[in-house]
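Q: Can I borrow your eye for a moment on a structure tokenisation matter? Would you mind producing a protein record, from residues through to fold? Write it directly below this note and I will take it from there.
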Amino acid sequence: MSTTSHSPALPAAKDAAQSTSFVLDRDSAGRLILKVSDHAQAVVVTAVRPFPISEPHGAIALVDRDGHELVWLESIDQLEPPARDLVLEELRRREFMPQIQALESVSSFITPSTWQVRTDRGPTSFVLGGEEFIRRLSGGTLLIADTHGIHYLIRDFTALDRESRKLLDRFL
């Protein structure tokens, strides 16, 4: 499934001359590849959001294996639907950050404790190693890391139900 798009920013592929046209596709291993229209060699790329928490629907960069930006998109809407689908699929694979919708229970108010939560991806449980693993971000947003390094997001802790806020308040 290849698709051609035009970049509003010029791809800065390592040895590529400046071009505004590129093709996105998947290789035989399922990796996202970028081919600049006037260059024969395709480059394996990763789609990344520069601000995935504060601007989840904002800009997107396509970077090579070394993290060098090849294409900058102010919005996913700048891509044609087939290319957009490929990039969105790539972002879903890369960005695993369940959003907590409710706290069902906690095993103890002393850490480490096991939290039973309901997320946008279904119910789950995780171990909170310490209160320092809860980070306050702007606008009532919380980022919680479990003992395995998985991050859970609460977009606005004031929007949680009363019981969830009561449990959470014991750790804040």
About this structure: The chain is about 15% helix and 35% strand. Confidence is low (pLDDT under 50) at residues 1-19. The first strand starts at residue 3 and ends at 6.
